[in-house]
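Let us practice reading a record.
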Amino acid sequence: MEEPLPAPPADTRDADPPHASAATPAERLSLLVERERVARKGPAGSLDERMASLSGALRRARLENAERSAAISDLRAAEIARLEMLGEALSPVLAQVPRDCDIFDVGVAPAERPRLFIDQIGFVEMDRDRRTYRFLQDTRHGRVTLRESDSIDDLVEAITSYIAHRLIEREKALAVDYASGGAAQALGVKIAAARERANERENDNSLSGKTTRAAAFIAEFFGAAAFFAFLAVLAAWIYRAYLAT
C-alpha cells in the first residue's frame, strides 16, 4: 500500500504569526502598517542612495550647462570677430564720408545678438549658420534684407552703395531745407527788425512821456509859485494904500 504524500507547507508569508490571533487590535494594526511600509520601499533603495543619485544628476546638469554656455560664448565671440573684420574692411569707405556728416556711426554692439551698425536704421548681423552676413534695414514698412552673402567683398559693395544713397538723400534734404528756409529766414529777420523798431518806439514814447510829465510838473510848480507871489504883492499894496494911513 502506497504511503500518503506529505502535505505541502502552508504559505505563511501573509499569514499572521501564531500569536496574532491572541494579539490585541492595536498590535495587529501596527503589524499591517509595517508590512505596507516594507512593500512601498520597493527596489528604489534607501533615502541616502536616492539623495546621492540626485546629487550626481545635479553635477552632470551643471557640467552640461557650463559646456553649453561656453559653446554659446565661443559662437558669440566668433560672430563679433567676423563683424569686426567687416568693419575694418569698411574703413577706407568711411574715410571718404564728408566730415560734416554725422549720420554714420559704424561700430559693433556686442549684445546677445551681435550687430555691426552702419547708422541708426541699417546694420549687419550673422545668420544662424554663423558664417553668412545679413545686411538689414529698418523701414516704415518693417525690416528688409538688403544683401545676404558669406563674402565680405559683397557686403562692402552693398554697404558702400547704401552709404552713397544715404548721402544723396542727405543732400536733397539739405537742399529742401535751404530752399524752404530762405524765405522763412528772411521773414523771420523782417519780423525781428519790426519788433526791434516797435520796442524802440515804445521806449521813445515812454521817455518822451516821462519828459512831458516832468515839464508839466515844473511848469505847474512855477505857475503856482508865481500866483502866490502875485497874491502876496497885491496884499502888501492894499495894506500900504488903505490900511497903513
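A brief commentary: DSSP finds four helices and five strands in the chain.
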